[in-house]
Amino acid sequence: MERKKEIAKLINVLRRTARTAMQAQWTGGDRDAAAFCTRQYNRVLSRLSELDPNVGSVFEPLAEDSTLMVAAMASRQLAAYYEDEVGRSRPWGGVYGAAFDTESFKHFWQRCATDIEDLGEYIRESVEAWAREQRAARAPSDEDAREDAASEDAGA
């Protein structure tokens, strides 16, 4: 299999492993789930190390008794390492417009919302970007700050 295609497939496995580990953590998953996610992460890391020897200098295998949270974090970080090669996991590029435009929402729903698990993952991943946009919108712009300073200087 072509190297780039195999890496993309392995990253998809890591993303699913992270998602599964987080869901199991939230729902009170047991040691079997943690052990499975840990083994899966270690197998993917091993294969990635064969394809890309440099990855071994940054990432190491997880201990067998790692928690679900550790497995999820490790899987997400390893997937992030390859983002520039395989791209971000963003199945719904135009979802922001869907909140305001019924046609955009219809297109989004028909194209992407068939898997409620993916919808939940998208929401979790998008909250940070949304919060950043909200903070930026509420913060005074540099131009507003300069105008305020200029009016204060003129009044003094």
Q: Overview of this structure, please?
A:
- The protein is mostly helical and about 160 residues long.
- The protein has two domains: about 5-85; about 95-155, no CATH class.
- It is about 75% helix and about 0% strand.
- It has eight helices and no strands.
- The protein has helices at about 5-25, 30-50, 70-80, 85, 95-100, 100-110, 115-140, 140-155.
- It is extended, with a radius of gyration of 21 Å.
- Mean pLDDT is about 80; it is low at about 90-100.
> How helix-rich are the residues, as a percent range?
over 70%
The domain tally reads 2
The parts where pLDDT drops under 50 for at least 5 residues are 90-98
Rg value: 21 Å
Query: How do the helices and strands follow one another from N- to C-terminus?
Result: HHHHHHHH
Count of alpha and pi helical runs: 8
Shape: extended
Mean pLDDT: 78
Category by helix and strand content = mainly alpha
Q: How would you characterize the largest beta sheet? A: none
What gap, in angstroms, lies between the N and C termini?
Answer: 72 Å
Which range does the strand content fall in?
Answer: under 5%
- The total beta strand count reads 0
Structural descriptors:
156 residues; mainly alpha; 2 domains; 8 helices; 74% helix; extended
